[in-house]
Known about the structure:
The protein has one helix at about 1-25, and strands spanning about 30-45, 50-70, 70-90, 105-120, 125, 130-145, 145-150, 155-160, 165-180, 180-190, 200-215. The protein is mainly β and about 220 residues long. The chain has an eight-stranded antiparallel β-barrel with strand order 1-2-3-4-6-9-10-11. It is elongated, with a radius of gyration of 21 Å.
Amino acid sequence: MMAFAIAMPTFAQLGSRKTRDRFNHSNVEQYYGVRLGYNLASINSSDVNIDMNSYGGWSFGGVYGLQLANSTPLWLEAGVFYSEKGGKNNDSPYTEEATNKERFQKKTTRLIYLQAPIVIKYAFDVADDFYVQPFLGGYLALGIGGKTKLYDEERSYDSFNNFNRFDGGLRIGCGAEYQMIYAEIGMDFGISDISDKEFKSARNQNLFFNIGVNF
Length: 215
């Protein structure tokens, strides 16, 4: 423990110097990062059966960043994530069109994706070793699992029985980095129609919070 305590200032100084060098356009022109996050996802649909409110889920993955030009702190960041999305419907509203029991019961849908975001970041030097990094880009995702639970009927089934596995959309947000520690908040806006019904549409929407470290 004593050796660890002695080594910590040196490690922090190394991380500080690496961050400062990176954004001041020295020889450090790339970084790697790990992320752990929380999603608040929902499904927006023209079908009352699959239009769902926010539902929490986890995400984790890794990223790689590359500086696009030595003359400006503009960065390209790409990553691969395990990401849980979906939605829940505690009290489905009554409509005259309601013809089946699914419209009236509690239902949750978990959609698990392997997701690949790619964004452009700009790093603003706010203070010593502290950077604010707004970003804009998109994502592609492939469904790899998930369950839909019907609580009144006490049964569940594969969520992708009713949804297409491919998803894609826009990503916008802002991150902050202090030395090697990184945090961000952002939104994913699904563009791809994930509904498997010909005359109904559905799209993912997700508010995410990520924390992690950059090396």
